[in-house]
Amino acid sequence: MRVITGSARGRKLEAPQGLETRPTSDMVKEAMFSIIQFEVEEAMVLDLFAGSGQLGIEALSRGAKFAVFVDASREAQEVIRANLQSTGLAQKSRVAAMDALGFLKSTGDRFSIALLDPPYQKGLLDEALPLLAGKMEEDGVILCESEKNEALPTKAGAFSLYKEYRYGKKKITVYRKEEA
């Protein structure tokens, strides 16, 4: 696993041990960032269910202003911090050591990009999306990685399912605010 492009291009990233974390493949990560390529510069990014932190780190490497990484696992938090140090991006980030839903209920932060890659088939996106919608900027974008057959909500607050992309056994679902 590595950073694909930007200031930390080519840097290797560590991942937590075990089966709890399922790192995003380079192909899917590249696809995600192709979708938002013109929105990353100076963005406030949320990497929810962060795992290794690779999605938020990719955003920072590509010019995001700041990223918040949220994961309840102590091991994941340590790996995220180590990856941020090794890529030189720690000063542009914060690691929130807490459950994703608890974070969304308590944060006052607002985000322009949210990247979600939760454990599959646990209904976490159904719970997180409505909470997240209220933390997004007007022109924000939410990207969710899931199994291709997992049904996701068509609405999340003022955000609606904009487009879905399938890559092998995975799916990227994009939510944007509806035009008034």
What does the model show?
With 180 residues, the protein is of the alpha/beta class. Helix content is 27%, strand content 28%. Helix 4 packs parallel to helix 5. It is globular and about 40 Å long. The mean pLDDT is 92.
Give a concise summary:
27% of the residues lie in helices and 28% in strands.
Assess the beta-strand content as a share of residues: 25-35%
Radius of gyration, whole Å: 15 Å
Encode the helix/strand succession as letters.
HEHEHEHEHEEEE
The helix content is 25-40%
How far is it from the N-terminal to the C-terminal residue, by CA?
A: 41 Å
Order of strands across the main sheet: 3-2-1-4-5-8-7-6
Low-confidence stretches: none
The rough form would be described as: globular
Count of β-strands: 8
Q: Output the structural class.
A: alpha/beta
Biggest beta sheet summary: 8 strands, mixed
Average pLDDT works out at 92
| Total helical segments | 5
